[in-house]
Amino acid sequence: MVITGAGSGIGAAMAEALAGRGARLLLNDLDSAAVAAVAGRIGAEYLAGDVTNPADVGRLVDAATASMGGIDLFCANAGVALPGSLDPDVFETSWHVNVMSHVHAARALLPGWLAAGRGRFLATVSAAGLLTMPGNAPYSVTKHAALGFAEWLRITYAHRGITVQALCPQGVRTPMLERADPRSAAVLTEGSITAEDVATAVLTGLAGNEFLILPHPEVGGRAARRGTDRDGWLAAMNRAQQRLEAAFPDPAVPDPAVPEGSAR
Ligand SMILES: NC(=O)c1ccc[n+]([C@@H]2O[C@H](COP(=O)([O-])OP(=O)(O)OC[C@H]3O[C@@H](n4cnc5c(N)ncnc54)[C@H](O)[C@@H]3O)[C@@H](O)[C@H]2O)c1
Which positions are catalytic? Predict the structure, then answer.
């Protein structure tokens, strides 16, 4: 099994949970010291690298295949939530980390998986990919894209033995949440759970084949409402946005579309 972004948060918790079930793991992270520490703690192998770089992803897949004889599960978990809703550079970076890394992984994995007639791909998406993330356009858009790619993979390869699943938590108390601006932190903190809770939901989800793994079950109801009453859902989300603006009138990272000094 391979887990990307395993040096912290959800990836580290999934690694610990899977290792506790006896899994052999190769962990990846951009942060070499962090992933080495997690791997050392649970007796896993690790290979630091950047999931936005196809060569690094190829090396990860090759190393796991060589040391474990194959990859039964690939967890594409590394992700970023960067501030700057209308900043093209933030869109660019978010696109590469949150979406293209999954494409690079699929390209590296599929030849071996299709030849073997089996393989499992778990994409860490987010509730933001099913709903949206108030205050963060690049995160919302790229998580929607990651979910779309996971759906496409499942549709295209399910009959050839490939299982694709999408993990869509809402707020999880990890360093990502700790770095969030006050508005995002308020959204994520309400109803937040621990990374260990997410890992428990993942173990249950991996035992089955359902596409969506929802550690926050209420996300399913919200997605259903979005599907059946889009205008009502959008109006409710706009009211939530207005409540956030009232509660946090000075976001740490101002929306670049709002001229300085203008009233919100
Ligand atoms: N924390 C939340 O509230 C929350 C909610 C829903 C989904 N998620 C998703 O869960 C995943 C993990 O998030 P987390 O909360 O554990 O965050 P985190 O910041 O604690 O951990 C993310 C890890 O990914 C690594 N990483 C970032 N870019 C990388 C790259 N290019 N190559 C390799 N590694 C890279 C980081 O170094 C870090 O160790 C992300 O995809 C995130 O979007 C998080």
Answer: 139
Cα–Cα distance measured from residue 169 to residue 171, given in angstroms and rounded to the nearest whole number: 6
| Element counts in the chain: helices (H) and strands (E) | 12, 7
Instruction: Quote the pLDDT of residue 264.
Output: 34
**Nearest-10 crossing angle of helices 230-247, 182-189:** 120
CB of 31 shorter than 6 A to ligand 1:
yes
Name the packing angle between helices 101-116 and 54-68 (round to 10°).
Answer: 30
Task: Please state whether the predicted TM-score (pTM) of the whole model is above 0.70.
Answer: yes
196-232 pLDDT, tens digit each: 999 999 999 999 999 999 999 999 999 999 999 999 9
Residue to probe by mutation, ligand 1, list 2, 3, 4, 10, most atoms within 8 Å of CB: 10
Give, rounded to a whole angstrom, the gap between the first and last alpha carbons of the chain.
48
From 16, 59, 136, select the one nearest 7 (Cα to Cα). 16
- Torsion, CA 204, CA 116, CA 110, CA 56, rounded to 10: 90
Rounded CA gap, 196 and 12, in Å? 9
Residue 2 near residue 75 (C-beta atoms within 8 A): yes
Pairwise CA distance, residues 126 & 214, whole Å: 9
